[in-house]
Hints:
This protein has 370 residues and is an alpha/beta fold. The chain is 40% helix and 13% strand. It is built from 15 helices and ten strands. The protein has a ten-stranded mixed β-sheet. About 2% of the residues have low confidence.
Amino acid sequence: MNAQVEPPPLAQFVLKPTVYCYHRCPYCDLRQDYYQGMVTEKKQALRLLPSNGSTRIPNPGHMPLDLALRSIDEAAALGMKEFQLSGGDPLLYPHLVEIIQAAKRHPGVFVFMNSVGTGVTVEKAREIIDAGLGAWNFSVDTLDPAKYAKLRGVRNALPTIMKAIDTVRRAGADFPEFRMNYMTVITRDNFRDIPELVAHCVDTGIASIYLMNVYGDTTGKSLLTEPEIREFRNETVPAIMAILQERKTAEIVQANAVQVLATFFSRENPDSNYAQGIYWPDMASVRKACTVPNYYALAEPDGRVLPCCLVEISHEGEVGNITDRPLSDVWTGQEFERFRRDRISFCQQCSAPRHMTLGLVPSMCRQFRG
């Protein structure tokens, strides 16, 4: 009789409580298609609910609060150490404070959130941070207003997010452990602007920049061309390192930056692949590089569970639904095990294992610390 294999701990649980977002980023089109189908299905189901005039019909784009709270407790029982709120934009979810508080009731859980912060007030930001938010991640790709508006698909996007960042900075001043980070997608439009962005972050106390490759670009509009990839290596990377040296950042920050920046457009994958959005030369490379499904699960607003966020782009690879099954059953279920073992063909186009945190303070130099 074979001994039962102990499942790995679910170290990082990502909850997407809403599909709604303030931005309309072009490289998120496939993700929005995924959400559109989700909302349509939910609307059809809600039409079947009896209406007596006193019961409020749930919003089809939001996760019901009871499901969110249950999933958090179940993730904690599976070993959750990090609880990430993403979306959509969690700021649009009406029960945001309640779910942060629920996560923080579990000892040792770090809570962070991806949000552009549109319209947030000092009072609201302080309430969110006081509930237990450890880090607020803002999506900032460039300091050029016209480019940023193009990348984000809305007018006045840069002034709006800079106002939100200033607001959150003021709200977080009384919380010494709280930090703000940027998330930056490296695209054809903004890769030359990243040194300026790094200088801005160092000067304004941003703790890190999570650098990401383009994902889900089926047209090639955002992907760097082969000459641009060489320019990134030969000019953009040295310019970033020069900024870190000029600003006299800590030695560990500079050493970490060398490692981090070397991973982007690295030589084990041909530049011709990168220029087509193919991030791995073969499936063996994917399996070796990506351990995400061994520690990570993502729950969508309708309860679908994904083994990584890029399943929203592939529209393939869902591993269960927590509306009718405990999260523990999904985490240890056959569908999740099959994904861990076999993956899907889209994994070669998945850029996620190549995303890296450029730490600008020593505590954020994750890769260097190993």
